[in-house]
Amino acid sequence: MFLFNSIPRRDVKPVAKDLISMFGNLGEVCAAPVHRLTEVKGIGEKTALDLKLLHAISAHMGRKSVLGRPVLSSWSALLDYCRTAMQYEPVEQFRVLFLDRKNRLIVDEVLGRGTIDRAPVYPREIVKRGLALEATAIILAHNHPSGDSTPSQADIDMTFMIVETCNAIGISVHDHLIIGREEIASFKMLGLM
């Protein structure tokens, strides 16, 4: 239906099938880069940008569902938001969700972008930003473009270092989430924090 509005006067079923065949599902279609979308016959730059807009709208709606609300009481909305924002990213990104004293989301920021298996993040930068925002707690989140949400030893070591650094200045780390294609791993639920 979305393609029908974006590509007028044309049978869009074959185009939709080609998109799903190439990318796997609607989420991956919308998260794909414009240049990859235009590789599909029938998808021009305008339609590719329309699909990117659909992804941006979904992420914005998810952010609005958690912004200013106590995230610990709306955990499923937070997980949905993280999944929408990061699930199909082609490179690893490290986000920090900064919370106020009532555990309401102040801001969600990408503090590290990397390669397919690594995103540099520095505890000093997290603390610096947390202090500037007057945050009292944070939730760490990063994606694994491979799709596997299992924490690596590097993930565990980095989390420990961030927790130690934040605790020293009174910022609590509530959890570290790893966003995979199908699952989200929670360090707290896994007993890693």
Structure description:
With 193 residues, the chain is α+β, with helices and mostly antiparallel strands. It folds into 2 domains: 2-59, 5' to 3' exonuclease, C-terminal subdomain (DNA polymerase, domain 1, Orthogonal Bundle); 70-186, Cytidine Deaminase, domain 2. It contains 8 helices and 5 strands. The protein has a 5-stranded mixed beta sheet, sandwiched between helices. A hairpin with a 5-residue loop joins strand 1 (93-99) and strand 2 (105-113). Helix 5 runs antiparallel to helix 6 (75-86) and helix 7 crosses helix 8. It is elongated, with a radius of gyration of 18 Å. The mean pLDDT is 86.
Quick summary of this structure?
It is built from eight helices and five strands, in the order H-H-H-H-H-H-E-E-H-E-H-E-E. The protein has helices at residues 2-6, 13-23, 26-31, 34-37, 45-66, 75-86, 123-133, 153-168; strands spanning 93-99, 105-113, 137-143, 172-179, 184-186. Strands 2-1-3-4-5 form a five-stranded mixed beta sheet, sandwiched between helices.
Helix content: 40-55%
- Main sheet characteristics: 5 strands, mixed
Low-confidence stretches: none
Radius of gyration: 18 Å
Mean pLDDT: 86
What is the H level of CATH, i.e. the homologous superfamily of the largest domain? Cytidine Deaminase, domain 2
Give the SSE string.
HHHHHHEEHEHEE
Indicate the CATH topology of the largest domain.
Cytidine Deaminase, domain 2
The side-by-side strand order for the widest beta sheet comes to 2-1-3-4-5
Query: Domains counted in the coordinates: how many?
Result: 2
Gap between N and C termini: 45 Å
Number of helices: 8
Strand proportion, as a percent range, falls in: 15-25%
Count the strands? 5
CATH class of the largest domain: Alpha Beta
The backbone outline, from C-alpha atoms, is: elongated
| CATH architecture classification of the largest domain | 3-Layer(aba) Sandwich
Secondary-structure-based class equals alpha+beta
